[in-house]
Amino acid sequence: DQQVKQNSPSLSVQEGRISILNCDYTNSMFDYFLWYKKYPAEGPTFLISISSIKDKNEDGRFTVFLNKSAKHLSLHIVPSQPGDSAVYFCAASAGANSKLTFGKGITLSVRP
Amino acid sequence: EAQVTQNPRYLITVTGKKLTVTCSQNMNHEYMSWYRQDPGLGLRQIYYSMNVEVTDKGDVPEGYKVSRKEKRNFPLILESPSPNQTSLYFCASSTYRGGNQPQHFGDGTRLSIL
């Protein structure tokens, strides 16, 4: 049973526009959500996180929104840059001692 | 520089020949784990370790072994590799197992089992 779902395998956007990456989850016990970015031939790197007590967290061009009632979160990248082209993983956990569950990832391509 | 180091980065080997992928971190993290990444399946946890001498199975542990004799090292052992273990493997470490503590990943080891 896939508890963290990234239903769109890929997304292509124009440089300078907004990228919106979506993630859905089924486990209502999840209380921390993280986004990781992965370039080819490198390991995933942490990008931004949000706890369930918040509905928004912002870090520069990156903003994560959490809708607990819909069990949905999204990562917004504004403005998108070609260097943002990567695979993005959504992940979630149900507390400090709970494992991190990853989605399948979405490949973002930002066109110059 | 804070990092997780995996070796080798690439390995092609044959079925049944025991192999070990090493992982070392220099951040004094208690928690370490191994993942495999396969097309269409994302990252799946193989084994994890909460601290020295404490290891446990993740989601896909079959065919793998691990050990945690020192805090910094967490090797992944394939005693009798099979072709279905051909994959991209990542070692990761963090302060805690979950929560909002980011996991630090190595650059990956691509294994091909013929």
Main sheet properties of chain B:
7 strands, mixed
Spell out the helices and strands of chain A N to C. EEEEEEEEEEE
Separation, N- and C-terminal Cα atoms of chain A? 38 Å
Low-confidence stretches of chain A: none
Rg measurement of chain A, Å: 13 Å
Strand content of chain A: over 45%
Number of helical runs of chain B? 0
Total count of strands of chain A: 11
Oligomer: heterodimer
State the low-pLDDT regions of chain B, or none: none
How many beta-strand elements of chain B? 11
Find the structural class of chain B using helix and strand composition: mainly beta
Q: How far is the N terminus from the C terminus of chain B?
A: 36 Å
Question: What class do helices, strands and sheet pairing of chain A give?
Answer: mainly beta
Largest sheet of chain A: 6 strands, mixed
Shape of chain A: globular
Could you give the order of the helices and strands of chain B? EEEEEEEEEEE
Backbone CA Rg of chain B: 13 Å
Largest interface: A-B, 25 and 25 residues
- Gross morphology of chain B: globular
Average per-residue pLDDT of chain A, rounded, comes to 94
Describe the structure.
The complex is a heterodimer of chains A (about 110) and B (about 110). Chain A is mainly beta and about 110 residues long. Helices cover about 0% and strands about 55% of the residues of chain A. Chain B has about 110 residues and is mostly beta strands. Chain B is built from no helices and eleven strands. The relative contact order of chain B is 0.32. The mean pLDDT of chain B is about 95. The interface of A and B includes residues 46, 93, 97, 99 and 100 of A.
Brief synopsis:
Chain A contains no helices and eleven strands. With 112 residues, chain A is an all-beta fold. Chain B contains no helices and eleven strands.
